[in-house]
Amino acid sequence: TVRPKNEVEHKQLCAFGEYVAEILPKYIQQVQVTCFNELELLIHPDGIIPVLTFLRDHTNAQFKSLADLTAVDVPTRQYRFEIVYNLLSLRFNSRIRVKTYTDELTPVDSAVPVHKAANWYEREVWDMYGVFFANHPDLRRILTDYGFEGHPFRKDFPLSGYVEV
Amino acid sequence: MLMLSLQTTGLVGLAVAENPHERLRILYTKILGVLQSIPKDAAYRKYTEQIVNERFDLVKKETDVQKLQDKLNSGQIEEVIVQAENELSLARKMMQWKPWEPLVEEPPSDQWRWPI
Question: Residue A19's Cα: distance from chain center in Å?
Fold first, then answer.
């Protein structure tokens, strides 16, 4: 069996994506809606805080809940890490994904002033990928061992690590 | 609905607002004031003015709190007040960020290609 296509929701998400892209042309590079009806905004890294604050505070887009903050490592690209924010709007029962990019050495603005929930998620992204977050209140390792060297989720980190256990 | 002194919003941390019409009037006037200093052709100004004017007209016409909540269709009146405060702070921040300008920087051509 195949999941039935929800055309109405698809159209609504497209319309909302165009609405946001019209309001924030300075930071939004691309907007896409996947075939599973998931709206994604592709952002320039300077625009993280403006876009997240807009999505949280604007009346038509009350995305008050940060559901997830992750990173994706694609080593072949110039900016290898893709930071992904998943937001949920409780008022409108709708989700949105915001994606940015950075490389190993460029710091990214922390989302903690906008969403307090981003605190530990950003510590995890720092620990696992090595993406530095500027203005983070407490950026330190969270999952790896105390003297651990390296960033495990990077694609060039071997599966069983460098140190024998 | 109980008498005013025993009312509760049912939401943690949100107190019942006495005189919500006045508070909303003040907030919406402030928002419109802040929006005046944004360039007229900015989409943010256009859409936010539309939303604020709609809600402001409803607030001016409807004096009963319960009916106003139903017409606005956006949760309790205290939540509407919180939303207006958020919109005001957002408008002030938008004045500094100026997101209506053209794109800051184009991404590298393979950045958003998927599959790689």
Answer: 20
**In this structure, is residue A85 part of a structural domain?**
yes
- What confidence category does residue B6 fall into, taking pLDDT thresholds of 50, 70 and 90? low
Q: Which residues of A touch B112 (CB under 8 A)?
A: 29-30, 42
Interface check A54 vs B, CB under 8 A:
yes
pLDDT single digits (tens) A110-155: 999 999 999 999 999 999 999 999 999 999 999 999 999 999 999 9
Q: Is the peptide bond preceding residue B115 cis, with omega within 30 degrees of 0?
A: yes
Distance CA B36, CA A142 (A): 46
When pLDDT is cut at 50, 70 and 90, the band that residue B5 belongs to is: low
What is the distance, to the nearest Å, from the Cα of residue A128 to the centroid of all Cα atoms in its chain? 15
| Substitution target from A28, A58, A79, A80 for chain B, most B beta carbons within 10 A | A58
Q: What is the DSSP letter of B102?
A: P
Find the CATH number of the domain harbouring A89.
Answer: 3.30.460.80
Split into its structural domains, chain A has a count of 1
Domain range summary for chain B, segments of one domain joined by +: 47-94
* pLDDT number for residue B7: 82
